[in-house]
Write a structure and sequence with these properties.
This protein has a five-stranded mixed β-sheet with strand order 1-2-8-5-3, with helices on both faces. A three-stranded antiparallel β-sheet has the order 4-10-9. The protein has a two-stranded antiparallel ribbon with strand order 6-7. The protein is an alpha+beta fold and 411 residues long. It has a single domain, classed as Cytochrome P450 (Cytochrome p450, Orthogonal Bundle). The protein has 18 helices and ten strands. Bound molecules: protoporphyrin IX containing FE. Protoporphyrin IX containing FE (HEM) binds next to helix 13, helix 14 and helix 18. The site of protoporphyrin IX containing FE has 24 residues, from helix 13, helix 14 and helix 18.
Length: 411
Amino acid sequence: MNRSVTSRPESIVRALTRPPFPVDPYPLYAELREAAPIFQAEDGFWYATSYAAAEAVFRDPALGQGRGRESRIRSDPRYADSAALQTLGHMLPFMDPPDHTRLRQLIARAFTPRAVERMRSFLEQRVDALLDPLAERGRGELMRDLADHVPVAVICEMLGAPGDRHADLVAWADRLVAAVHSTVSDAELAWADEGARSFRDYVGGLIEARRSEPQDDLLTALVQAESEDDALDAQELLSTACVFIGAGIENTKHYIGSGLAWLIREREAAERGRRDPKALSRALEEVLRLEPPVQIAIPRIALADTEVEGAWIPKGDRLCAVMAAANRDPAAFANPDVFDPDRVGPPNLSLAMGTHFCTGAGLARLEAQVVVGRFLARFPNARLVVDPPPFRDEIRPTLRGHAALEVDLGL
Ligand code: HEM
């Protein structure tokens, strides 16, 4: 009988990255981090699970996506015929400096902290309108009735996209994101391509409309950046509009869901949060540490031989920072599995670090603060009907969030 011996770290990686995904992955992340904080699995990928190793993956300039046509996405032999890969290939997360630096600076001009803060009153009104029917019913399912609606409404409002295509945008973005992983099969890519084509047609139409009739929105600011010295080419403009939708919806929805679940349960932190917005934002940061919506970062390629926390990584190898493991590393955070809103320590890695630090971090935090803050203020006696609430198990291992959040509002 041919019985191959599988090491424990290898079987943990398999359990974490192949369906059915574990309901509670954190003990497995901890075991892997203790056994091998930087581990090369049989699929060839290195997994960096300690805080130091994950931070090194984010910061090491020898690790990246490759430049221009040499990049991981653009050098895929299917690139020329794939709408999904062409869209991804011109997005920030899949670019290296100097193109990345140029594009990121342009986006920063449009996506300013002021532009984000201007969303606050829109957010408050939208959230209150979603809470009204909940209050009438006295109970609800907060993923379906609340979290699902907020991030897509916010990003469409910022971009200036009409509100009637929210469901389509979410579906297209979801299909596009399926093409992110280098192991994507031909069938998955064909599925992603279909979504990408619809996405591009729709967003392309919005861009054309802004060219002829500028508005006071993010899309117009990007169109203007495109026309100034050709700083942003047409492909990049389209991909940038798509990245905001693709990178800003699902993960933020899950962050909002986890924020609600934790603070409904953590009554003392909720009470402090009701009185003090700073206490609320500290509590939500702790939720972000404990429950990263994106558990594993986009893979990097070693562009040259390099060393990560004592492991020698040859040029061409692929590495993933595992934020879900690093955020609970006892070498970085005392009692790492405990919810402690007064915690002092290094920043959590849920929004990455370094060159690719999440552009939407301020927006994601604002959305969570407004949704959770308004909910707690209005329903101080809410309780979870199903505790712990179920997690989605059908989505990719990189994303984690609640499938449903049944609550009794205690009115
Ligand atoms: C809680 C919600 C969010 C989480 C957990 C999250 C997480 C991340 C992570 C981990 C990265 C780095 C990816 C990598 O390099 O491997 C990233 C990058 C990015 N995020 Fe977010 N994100 C969130 C919300 C948003 C929002 C609301 C937007 C925009 C509307 C956004 C836009 C971006 C963009 C454009 C990048 C690429 C940055 C670059 O490559 O320079 N994200 N995000």
